Amino acid sequence: MDLDKNNEAVNPRLDNEHWADVLVQALPYFKHWVGKVVVVKYGGNAMLNEELKADVMEDIVLLNTIGIHVVLVHGGGPEINHMLERVGKESRFVNGLRYTDGETMEIVQMVLTGKLNKDIVGLLLQKGGKAVGLSGVDSGLLRARKIDKDGADLGFVGEVTEVHPEIIQSLLDQDFIPVVSTVALGETGDYNRYNINADTAAAKIAVALKAEKFVQLTNVPGVLRDVNDPKSLIQRIHIQDVQGYIDDGTIAGGMIPKIECCMLARNGGVPRTHIIDGRVPHSLLIEMFSDRGIGTMIY
Q: Where are the alpha helices (H) located in the chain, listed in sequence order?
């Protein structure tokens, strides 16, 4: 007789039926996604919690192993804040965006492209994946221009104007997992580096790669009718209904820019865009390979 971890009897017939059902349900999704490009924006609690981080890495390696082309785009705001504190530099925000002077930009580049990017690549390699780290500067992947938001000077904060995805496509063709940190090079003739929003960068990379799916891992279940009730999750929102949800306050605050990134990707030709809860273990696999999915899909 089989025993579980509490030494209680387990019915092997029921257990086998359960797992057979899971595999049967997942098989059509396996077939659908093989050979397709999926862009994942990675951040939030899934990036800070070590157990969740391990789950995300395992999910991505699994997807890559069965032939799904995953591109992982990451931010790193909390880690940048921590490093600024260590060097005694105060974080300053203007209209919700980090003011980035020359010294801060050096720290942003060091943290994102030097530490975090290589940490993620190392974790993927430890899980048996093939991963390569990139920044938006490499091969001119991301070009950006300085943002002037409402007349306020934000320093070296930029918005993506061009995506040149050839380096990513080359890596995907060789079955590598590209891991992209969102530091961008200025436009032609501008040799400055720019700190850019990782969500927006990920959406534009998804469009440039003609991805089949764009997923944002966040710290919330998705769009909720009642922010205090996780069971009020709205699983599907048609793109034409988004403005109505913004007008009535259902979509508000930090959820608005995430929805806007989904709309950017969807309007750029990405068929499926999702906001899912990175705090749920293996949420990426649940979204990819189950009937119920997880989070909110903008379609």
A: 12-33, 45-48, 50-65, 77-86, 102-109, 117-126, 166-173, 198-208, 242-247, 255-267, 283-289
Instruction: Provide the residue type at 131 as one letter.
Output: A
Distance of CA 198 to the CA centre of its chain: 8
Nearest to 276 by CA among 204, 196, 217, 191: 217
Task: Judge whether 97 and 104 are in contact, CB under 8 Å.
Answer: no
pTM above 0.70, yes or no: yes
* Tokens at 289, concatenated: 């390979």
Cα Rg of the chain (Å, integer): 20
pLDDT digits (tens, 9 = 90+) for 91-145: 787 766 778 899 999 999 999 999 999 999 999 999 999 999 999 999 999 999 9
Contact (Cβ atoms closer than 8 angstroms) between residue 165 and residue 141: yes
Counting beta carbons within 10 angstroms of the beta carbon of residue 254, is it exposed (0 to 12), middle (13 to 18) or buried (19 or more)? exposed
Number of separate helices (H) and strands (E) present in the chain:
11, 14
Q: Residue 34: CA atoms inside 13 Å, Cβ hemisphere, count?
A: 8
